[in-house]
Amino acid sequence: MLKIYKPTSPGRRNMTAVDARSLSKLRPLKRLMVIKKSKAGRNNKGNVTVRHQGSGEKNFYRKIDFKQSKFDVPAKVKSVEYDPNRSAWIVLLCYADGDKRYVIAPEGVKIGDRILTSNKQIPTEMGNRQPLKYMPIGTKIHNIELVPGQGGKIVRSAGSAAILMALSNGFAQIKLPSSERRLVKEDCLATCGSISNADWRYVNWGKAGRLRHRGIRPSVRGKAMAPVAHPHGGGEGHSPIGMKHPKTPWGKPALGVKTRRKKKWTNKYIIQRRVNKKRKK
User: In whole angstroms, what is the distance from residue 257 CA to residue 236 CA?
Assistant: First the structure.
């Protein structure tokens, strides 16, 4: 659910935020946190390699268990917490043997719920994790492995979920949130349900300061620069880019250009590419 602010100032006007009052008030588990050093988009020589990054609020990185390799050991949800490093909520699981781990929170999870991970067939319930070959067709899944035992690699952001479409010849066909269809080995693990905090995509940040707290620095339009600084630069007033198509600051084509290698070895697993929605003129 979104929280809407009153327009008491220009920055507050139209500002929204995710209502986090339902989250646990407990402090994060100290042994599951590590210091996160700020790189500010620079390499080991101090040169900016990724633009528009810098400053940001200091925070600790939470160690997330993407593998969930404790099979057949029931776990109880102790807390649902905020994670500054990702858009989804996280939950602290307390296993029956006393171990504690953070995992991505599925939609609808509550304190006290039971979650189970197994390499055998178990009930297809929210939060349970098992191989794809034991799930019924049409199940919503997230945190999906691409290689068995490697840990979840795709479908990990807030509100996202893939759909299990078919099972055949040792592979599972899944439909990703981008509408791409691809094959994954049926022995790969996946978690049932969609991911929490689905309203995150509708947040209106309202003012530049909130983005600075996230570590995002301002970006300048190319057509507002001088000709020496950007291919779109030059002209007077609100001049258009003056070129056939948009370009990056280094002269390469931008917007809609394919960057995937043509001979990438995983191409054989992609059945259907994502559907690109046409930009409205």
Answer: 29
Q: What pLDDT is attached to residue 77? A: 93
What pairs with residue 217 in β-bridges?
none
CB within 8 Å of 112: residues ≥ 6 apart = 76, 77
Confidence band, pLDDT 50/70/90 cuts, at residue 278 = low
Q: Tokens for 236, please give them.
A: 């007077």
User: Which residues are CB-neighbours of 15 under 8 A, at least 6 positions away?
Assistant: 4, 5, 204, 205, 206, 207, 210
Q: Is the distance from CB of 234 to CB of 227 less than 8 angstroms?
A: yes
Closest to 187 measured CA to CA, from 143, 128, 147: 147
Element (H, E) at 272: strand 270-272
Q: Which two tokens stand for residue 24?
A: 């646990």
Residue 281: pLDDT band with limits 50, 70, 90: very low
Contact between 204 and 13 under an 8 Å Cβ cutoff? The reply is no
> How does pLDDT run across 87-119, given as a tens digit for each residue?
999 999 999 888 999 999 999 899 999 999 999
